[in-house]
Amino acid sequence: MKLKMYKKVIIIIVLAITTPCLQLLAHAASMPADTTKIWIPIGGNGYVGNHTDSKIDSTGFNKWTSDKDTLSVFVRLESPGSLNLAFKLRVPDGSSKIALLAAGSTFVKTIKNSTYTLVNFGKVNIKQAGYQQVKLYGLHKTGTAFAAVKDLVITGSAVAGGLAYIKDNHGNYFYWGHRGPSVHLNYQVPEQAKNKTEWFYNEITVPIGEDKIGSYFMADGFTGGYFGMQVNSPTERHVLFSIWSPFTTDSPESIPDSLKIALLKKGAPVKAGEFGGEGSGGQSYMNYPWVAGKTYAFLIHAQANELSKTTTFTAYFKETSQSQWQLIASFRRPKSGFYLNGIHSFLENFDSEMGNKQRKAFYGNQWIVDTAGNWYPITKALFTGDQTANINFRKDYSGGVNGNRFYLRNGGFFDDFTPLKTILTKTQSENKHPDIDFTKLP
Fold this sequence. Notes:
Jelly Rolls; mainly beta; about 5% helix; nine-stranded antiparallel β-sheet
């Protein structure tokens, strides 16, 4: 978000509010009282604008020195009402004049405390469900920094209906929560194709403006691997295909040779190697300048060998308007011997500084082919989320149907979330399956 202000530093707090009838947080034992202080740690809920190199760490925002810096803090409230806003902060030296703007009211404070103190700014009235924005910005400073900000502290009747935010850093949740919730489409395969699905075809269209940095639009997921496209930087985009090793580890160098993923072939422009950090295995990617607004096709093939207990997975990619498929890579996975199971798609953000940006994609024209060559359309999917969504730390996620396509959306702290485990059903307007000559694939 870019806000044009002269010599002002802006802290933005978006208060996502939904209807009171929504379910309270799973771990909440009771409604908080009006006087209950809710401490919102900046380390897990704050975002710095990309104006300077200033970053938030687990202790908060400690380098608020530039008048170009912005900071956003997000919390979701489940009911309207009064809301008192305070910050635990300090001014390292000198004094700072800081103003807060929220719900049509403005509060100005001159702050001189050099140790962390809870500074109350004022009370606002949240009138209706939806996002509310509170801005905290610096008007003037005499010292080296405007402030070091540790927590947002809220009280009032608006918190009585429950709320969602990143509460603590157990399990590194300041990182995972900062990334935002991942969401999935778990496709329902016809009974006659279960355990013998040999091919999986899917298409993705990312709307213009929804291709945020850090996005992974995963098209063809299955037990053991995933295949999709990423936004890696302002100038680089990948088509990525990876296979997990059956050996559980985050360090690829620790995988025994007998359980390593073997690269059998790859496309000429494709780079291949190993990955780690979130499990380990074989990875391939192609630098490819895919464009928002265009539709891309993804095709996965599984060749199962029950005797050797291995499966060879091969990935192909193309723009739908093109006729020629591009080979990404072919990997052999040990300790397998099965065809495509658990087919799914997902949408995630892998850049922890971009969790306050919304991203969205349409997934359409899904087909599978069984070992006998029979084609089946996919028209149903179960919408699910990751642990960040399931424990109600964040609720800016949704999935649904738009005509003959499914869609997934996450990030950006939008209000209209979709309940997890919703079954989605779309129409199949395509009269026939894609025309693919499997014998001519590279």
